[in-house]
From TrEMBL:
<feature type="transmembrane region" description="Helical">
    <location>
        <begin position="117"/>
        <end position="135"/>
    </location>
</feature>
<dbReference type="Pfam" id="PF13499">
    <property type="entry name" value="EF-hand_7"/>
</dbReference>
<keyword id="KW-0106">Calcium</keyword>
<dbReference type="GO" id="GO:0016020">
    <property type="term" value="C:membrane"/>
</dbReference>
<comment type="similarity">
    <text>Belongs to the 1-acyl-sn-glycerol-3-phosphate acyltransferase family.</text>
</comment>
<keyword id="KW-1133">Transmembrane helix</keyword>
<protein>
    <recommendedName>
        <fullName>EF-hand domain-containing protein</fullName>
    </recommendedName>
</protein>
<keyword id="KW-0808">Transferase</keyword>
<keyword id="KW-0472">Membrane</keyword>
<dbReference type="GO" id="GO:0008654">
    <property type="term" value="P:phospholipid biosynthetic process"/>
</dbReference>
<dbReference type="InterPro" id="IPR018247">
    <property type="entry name" value="EF_Hand_1_Ca_BS"/>
</dbReference>
<feature type="region of interest" description="Disordered">
    <location>
        <begin position="1"/>
        <end position="30"/>
    </location>
</feature>
<dbReference type="GO" id="GO:0005509">
    <property type="term" value="F:calcium ion binding"/>
</dbReference>
<keyword id="KW-1208">Phospholipid metabolism</keyword>
<dbReference type="InterPro" id="IPR002123">
    <property type="entry name" value="Plipid/glycerol_acylTrfase"/>
</dbReference>
<keyword id="KW-0594">Phospholipid biosynthesis</keyword>
<keyword id="KW-0812">Transmembrane</keyword>
Amino acid sequence: MAAAKDLKTPLLPSSDDQRRLSQPPSDADHQLHNPQLILDVIDHLDPSASSNHETPTNECSISINTQLDFDENPYGFIGSTGFEVPGSTTVDPFRNHTPKIEGVYELVKLLICAPIALARLVLFAFCLAIGYLATKFALSGWKDKQNPMPKWRCRVMWITRLCTRGILFSFGYHWIQRKGKPAPREIAPIIVSNHVSYIDPIFFFYELFPTIVASESHDSMPFVGTIIRAMQVIYVDRFSQQSRKNAVNEIKRKASSDRFPRLLLFPEGTTTNGRLLISFQHGAFIPGYPIQPVVVRYPHVHFDQSWGHISLATLMFRMFTQFHNFMEVEYLPIVSPSEHHKESAVRFAEKTGRAMARSLNVVQTSHSFLDYLLLSKAADSGHENPSLFVVEMAKIQQLFHLSSSDALDLLDRFLAMNPDSSGNVKIQDFLRVLRLKRCGLSEKMFEFIDVGRNGKIIFKEFLVASAHLLNQPLFQQACEMAFTESDINQDHYISEQEFGASLMPAMGSLSTDEIDGLFNLFDEDDDGRISKGDFVNCLRKNPLLIALFSPHFMNKDLDQNAAAGYLEEIV
């Protein structure tokens, strides 16, 4: 089956193979083998040349023999030889370890600190109001945002910076331990830091007043949006490639001029619990300027101050009711790209990550912001253990080029299968969501995913299996050909009757309800017929269902040039 992945491998069966397949099988053959789906791959050779090893032509196609068997792999016809699930840690980097008030000490402290908390709340509101008004005044009438903020406006912003120190004090950060010093801006124009709490940017605003890179959604936040605009924020939509490209260009432009403040980025892209580093985004490293890493720690015994999977209101309340909250900030030596050769952003980020992990005495994993989105979606669904759906998405996206939206859609599908408290799904729930009847093919589809061979599947297996199929170079072409073959009367739409007839070779006889269920799944716009767009979109959302149309590829050709072009696009 390895040959199926090679786009230059011969793709048509030889004359000897065709002669062999045309002979009826013997009784012994029936006893030893079930009918099977065989993918023969060979070039268009002259029959007489097949045994003489002559140089093949460049023309190639794929042909599938007429013996159908799902004993091995129901997806071999698109080049799949199976997949492996990447290993991962069992650590949840977003877990706050003290989400609830527990123990006698914490309860007593809460009662003692309640009056103090009220005073802190008043101080917080006062500092926020004064800082907000000062920022509004500094921004009033300023329209030339492409150039640095005028000096007199920066002096006004000192009022806001002092107010942020008051806000830190109100949260219980009466003193903050520092180690090392910020490097001069002209030596290291970019600072990167790990991201543990919403306290991090408040501290850096007071300490450095840098330009930050932030999500576009922050602009509409009350008070916060106004204050970060004064920092000449660079907005980015992390799900838009063009937005990310524009942000990198802005980082380059502002880092190259000493007239702008230094830039601060949190390359992890989200907050963690500080017990490890997660994968870095590369926006800070692409410009190639020297970077000063900074690590932030929040030592604690009874109260975890990290903004993991915990609400902001709960975290603020807990901070207000502590005697004191500890914070340590360490400025590390500058990390520069290699002088001997142009270092890639990936290697530069890895080198910086190692320096920060070494200082924090932690490891760096392949988790990403998308893992946090998966965790949040699982928690919102009511699952009792959402940490099971954290799968180190940076590694999976690197291997399979899976988009964030596709990953979230696949989680929706998996959650609909009602995974148990251990995150396992049984075959009956798998079939229910994909609207399949139990038969030889559907069982083999489930076994294809069940890498652990325990009769159950977990989300990571389901995700990687789906991503693996989407990543096959022949997948898109197979979807289009399956539509063409199912459109029996060639009117560019598939009726329910045509759809039922199209499924019968793979699934056998189906009841009206079984056909109707699958038809409604494919008919995305509910107009009573399946367009090509409906068909392909459904298969992209449910790539496992491509196996239902495998009989249509018997003795059919798939254009390898198109497949090669598709492969170049995804790579």
